[in-house]
Write a structure and sequence with these properties.
- The protein is an alpha/beta fold and 324 residues long.
- The chain has two domains: 173 residues, Glucose-6-phosphate isomerase like protein, domain 1 (Rossmann fold, 3-Layer(aba) Sandwich); 87 residues.
- 62% of the residues lie in helices and 10% in strands.
- It contains nine helices and eight strands.
- Strands 5-4-6-7-8 form a five-stranded parallel sheet, with helices on both faces. The protein has a three-stranded antiparallel sheet with strand order 1-3-2.
- The longest helix has 67 residues.
- The chain is globular.
């Protein structure tokens, strides 16, 4: 189970859903009850799904890949920006520009423009520009920084994407699904959890609810990054661990084979006895068939006797004629 307790989620208001008339029927398995026209989310299922999401996030961070966080609503964008900066992951909190993932080459070009303006300031070419050009470049830099500044370090498509409120960020979700990128999301009672690979049923409107879940996910990412550092620092220890696990696996396999071998020896004896029984059964009808064939052939042997009787009669008739 998750490190969070049931009471902590309850105090943060994670269990509050939307009005009953705004619900999505696909969220029925995650709804505990309806109270005063508002759906209440089952926090036990929230804890289970949060644990699954944390485990998956930890593995992605351990592999050294990037996870993109998307939260452009007012309640979530400041929280996500503060927390995710500490974990060194890309995030989008201002505006999701269409094609940010599906047309990633174009987004990379706009990021290069931003870096080229920064180089101009460091090289000294910035001083050669006139006042009007400087003003145009600064405005362009500010605009690019606002939309792409948080993903400037993302050189390739992310390994996963975390979304707060999939109804508001439906374009980001559609692009991630089109590219088969694993999706994690906070799912409220008015959204469809079937569109997300790792849905976390929770209140996505309250800032307390968003912070408690984002903090938990950041902890799991931090743990994955620390494990990656330890693996790089002590490769010998990791090799020893893998060798130990391999030895344990082989030992278990040998024990299983020994258990299987005992009944396996008895089975051939049964199989050998069975063919003999079948052979005896086959021999009996074969003998009966031979006896029938012999019985049918015996009447055919009497035919020559009938010819002899006819010959004797003809000889007797000739003898009678001669006497006459």
């Amino acid at each position: 189970m998750s490190k969070l307790s049931f009471k902590e989620l309850l105090d943060a208001g994670v269990h509050f859903g939307h009005l009953k008339r705004k619900w999505n029927p696909a969220m029925a398995p995650y709804i505990f009850e309806e109270k005063k026209g508002i759906h209440i989310i089952d926090l036990n299922k929230t804890l289970v799904h949060l644990e699954q999401a944390n485990a998956a996030m930890k593995q992605i961070a351990k592999s050294g890949k990037k996870i993109l966080f998307v939260a452009t609503k007012k309640q979530a964008k400041d929280i996500v920006a503060e927390r995710i900066k500490n974990v060194n992951m890309p995030f989008v909190t201002e505006r999701w520009s269409g094609g940010m993932l599906t047309n990633f080459q174009t987004t990379r070009k706009s990021i290069r423009k931003m870096t080229s303006i920064d180089k101009m300031k460091s090289d000294g070419t910035w001083d050669t520009l006139n006042k009007r050009e400087k003003l145009f470049k600064t405005r362009q830099r500010e605009k690019l920084e606002k939309t792409f500044g948080s993903i400037a370090d993302m050189t390739r498509q992310p390994a996963a994407i975390f979304i707060v409120d999939i109804l508001k960020e439906h374009i980001a979700l559609a692009e991630a699904r089109r590219l088969n990128i694993p999706t994690f999301a906070l799912v409220d009672t008015n959204s469809n959890p079937k569109l997300v690979d790792f849905p976390i049923p929770a209140n996505d409107d309250a800032s307390k609810s968003i912070t408690i879940i984002i903090d938990e996910i950041c902890k799991s990412i931090q743990e994955g990054l620390e494990e990656r550092k330890n693996l790089k620092a002590n490769p010998e220890a990791t090799e020893a661990k893998t060798a130990e696990t391999a030895e344990k696996a082989t030992a278990k396999a040998e024990v299983k084979e020994e258990k299987v071998e005992a009944p396996a020896k008895e089975e051939p004896a049964k199989e050998k006895a069975a063919p003999k029984a079948k052979a005896t059964k086959k021999e009996a009808p074969a003998k009966e068939a031979k006896e029938e064939k012999v019985a049918t052939k015996k009447p055919a042997a009497k035919k020559p006797a009938a010819k002899k009787t006819v010959a004797k009669k003809t000889v007797a008739k000739k003898a009678v004629k001669e006497e006459k």
